[in-house]
């Protein structure tokens, strides 16, 4: 199979990768990616992908992806893991909704209550249609991020 992305390491890149592998310190995937680049270098060992994935016990897709990232984005991108474009779950509260939550938390508590609880705040956020649904733990994390304590007597 013809390789679409051909790895050609410069002398400096090769020296940097060999030092990383020889030192053996750091994250295991970075050392594996460095080994893959050294093995698939067209001016070096020039191993086929199948041989590299067997030697370094990784998936053939890993070898292809490391080579592709090296050619398209450079050495640092090839060694590091790919960053996610989007988080695994979308945020429930954006900046405006967080501001409204804080405003509610700092307002006087409901009639018959001495202070806000996390579940009361969550219910109020849904009642005000700031979010379709929200848990008390999401409210807690948001308030903690802002250094607010809803059960503190100073709030409200």
What does this structure look like?
With 156 residues, the chain is mainly α. The protein is built from 8 helices and no strands. It has helices at residues 11-23, 28-40, 49-55, 60-73, 75-79, 95-106, 118-127, 136-145. The radius of gyration is 26 Å and the shape is rod-shaped. The model has no long low-confidence stretch (mean pLDDT 91).
Q: What oligomerization state is this entry in?
A: single chain
Weakly predicted, low-confidence segments: none
Q: Class by helix and strand content?
A: mainly alpha
> Overall pLDDT, averaged?
91
Order of helices and strands: HHHHHHHH
Could you tell me the radius of gyration in angstroms? 26 Å
Number of strands: 0
Helix content: 40-55%
What overall form do the CA principal axes indicate? rod-shaped
Beta-strand percentage?
Answer: under 5%
Calculate the terminal CA-CA distance, rounded to whole Å: 69 Å
Largest sheet properties: none
**Whole-number count of domains:** 2
Number of helices: 8
């Amino acid at each position: 199979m013809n390789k679409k992305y051909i790895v050609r390491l410069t002398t400096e890149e090769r020296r940097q990768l060999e030092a990383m592998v020889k030192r053996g310190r750091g994250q295991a995937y970075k050392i594996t990616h460095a080994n893959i680049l050294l093995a698939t270098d067209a001016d070096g060992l020039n191993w086929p992908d199948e041989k590299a994935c067997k030697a370094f016990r990784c998936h053939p897709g890993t070898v292809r992806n490391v080579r592709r990232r090296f050619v398209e984005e450079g050495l640092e991108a090839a060694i590091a893991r790919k960053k996610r474009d989007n988080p695994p779950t979308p945020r429930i509260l954006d900046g405006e909704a967080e501001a409204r939550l804080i405003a509610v938390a700092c307002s006087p508590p409901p009639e018959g209550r001495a202070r806000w609880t996390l579940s009361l705040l969550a219910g109020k956020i849904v009642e005000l249609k700031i979010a379709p649904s929200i848990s008390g733990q999401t409210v807690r994390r948001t308030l903690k991020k802002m250094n607010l304590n809803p059960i503190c007597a100073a709030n409200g």
